[in-house]
Amino acid sequence: MFSERAKEVVRGVTREIREAGTWKEERLIASPQGVEILVSGRKVLNFCANNYLGLSSHPEVLAAAKRALDEYGYGMSSVRFICGTQDQHRKLEKKLAEFFGFEDVILFGSCFDANGGIFEALFTEQDVIISDALNHASLIDGIRLCKAERQRFPNGDMSELEKILKGTQAARLRAVVTDGVFSMDGYVAKLDRICSLAEQYEAIVVVDDSHASGFVGKTGRGTPEECGVIGRVDILTSTLGKALGGASGGFAAANREVVELLRQRARPYLFSNSLAPSIVGASLKVMELLSKTTQLRDKLMNNAKNFRDRVTSAGFQIKAGSHPIVPIMIGDARMATEIARDLLEDGIYVIGFSYPVVPKGQARIRVQLSAAHTEEHIERAVNAFSAVARRRGLLRAT
Q1: How many whole angstroms separate alpha carbon 118 and alpha carbon 126?
Q2: Does the annotation mark 242 as catalytic?
């Protein structure tokens, strides 16, 4: 039984979170995921989902999920090596490998699981992991699980990365680990320079491409395509839970030898249920859609440029770039939360981000565009941002 002393410890921690202004509210959505969602009994425009290609409720994806449910059942009730592998699991792995340009792919329950499984399976105390300072929490946690020496370089600092590579040449293996796109800023990693340094100093390159797979690059192959390094990234992890359908699931792509070892040693793969059949079936349809045309990807990137141009012209400060993640910089944490609340009242659903998710003094509202947004949706959002900011004194009244 949880003692009163233990309860008080927990209450103290939650009080501290509330007092710091970083408490995370979970709003209840009473509709399917999409650009219009039902929140607190009213329809609002959704500008904070990872539904980049608008596929979360796409009719063909839903139909494929329903077919898989009828043909393959609800759940696997097992892990892959016992009795949890269906023919469609391997079909999806092969499709993902083909699309992203790798020899093989291994599916996980999420990209968090993929990142939590690869490092412990591949690296020992004889090795060194060199990680970008702004990497996602799942990469940080996965690296902590292995016994390799850990080194960190400032975000995008190639001089410091080279210095670390020079100083760790006695290690058995070294891996440079980075997000493909840094989710709080929309920055694309300098993969061309990272790969060149890794090749020069014989290091492995590991990229989490969750905020790029399916839409970054001319054909949606992610940051390796955007940076011209397809075939030079050694291990790529990503998610099926963002652009690629939005349900759940993740994967690691690599050469056959690495994937074979992960099937034997990656603990989240060995000890977690296989991905649900309906998600696998829907994901196969997603890969089919993306392999046929870049129409959704092109629409998304046009929407991102449109929003960036409009919101900049309105007088807001944003992080530079072209990614559909558009951080609107506010500065003050409480102000960011209050603006997000005001916008919800005006029919625009966004979230304010503040410390410790982002550095102190760099609170922001992270807007995320979708291929399903229309010109009218974008205009409504920019107008609402402008009206709220003027009421709050952040923009001059016109």
Answers
A1: 16
A2: yes
Mapping DSSP to helix (H, G, I), strand (E, B) and coil, where does residue 313 land? helix
- For this structure, is 360 an active site residue? no
CA pseudo-torsion sign 258, 260, 264, 267: positive
Digit-by-digit pLDDT tens for the chain (398 residues) are 789 999 999 999 999 888 877 778 888 999 999 999 999 889 999 999 999 999 999 999 999 999 999 999 999 999 999 999 999 999 999 999 999 999 999 999 999 999 999 999 999 999 999 999 999 999 999 999 999 999 999 999 999 999 999 999 999 999 999 999 999 999 999 999 999 999 999 999 999 999 999 999 999 999 999 999 999 999 999 999 999 999 999 999 999 999 999 999 999 999 999 999 999 999 999 999 999 999 999 999 999 999 999 999 999 999 999 999 999 999 988 899 899 999 999 999 999 988 888 888 999 999 999 999 999 999 999 999 999 999 998 886 55
Choosing from 89, 242, 319, 373, which is the catalytic residue? 242
- In single-letter form, the type of residue at position 257 comes to E
Give residue for tokens 């059942």: 73
**For residues 196 and 369, what is the distance between their CA atoms, to the nearest angstrom?**
32
Contacts 24+ apart (CB under 8 A), 137-145: 138/111, 138/112, 138/208, 139/115, 139/177, 139/179, 139/208, 141/112, 141/115, 141/116, 142/115, 142/116, 142/117, 142/118, 143/119, 143/177, 145/116, 145/119, 145/120
CA distances from 294 to 210, 214, 215, 217 (A): 18, 9, 8, 10
The pair of three-digit structure tokens given for residue 347, joined into one six-digit string: 């029919």
Question: Which amino acid, one-letter code, is at 214?
Answer: G
Q: What is the DSSP letter of 29?
A: B
Catalytic residue (choose from 211, 285, 319, 377): 211
Listing DSSP states for 157-184 in one string gives -HHHHHHHHHHTTTSS-EEEEEESEETT
368 contacts 300 by C-beta, under 8 angstroms: no
Known catalytic residue: 58?
A: no
- Radius of gyration (Cα) for the chain, nearest Å? 22
C-beta neighbour count of 60 within 10 angstroms: 13
Spatial separation of the C-alpha atoms in residues 244 and 264, rounded to whole Å: 26
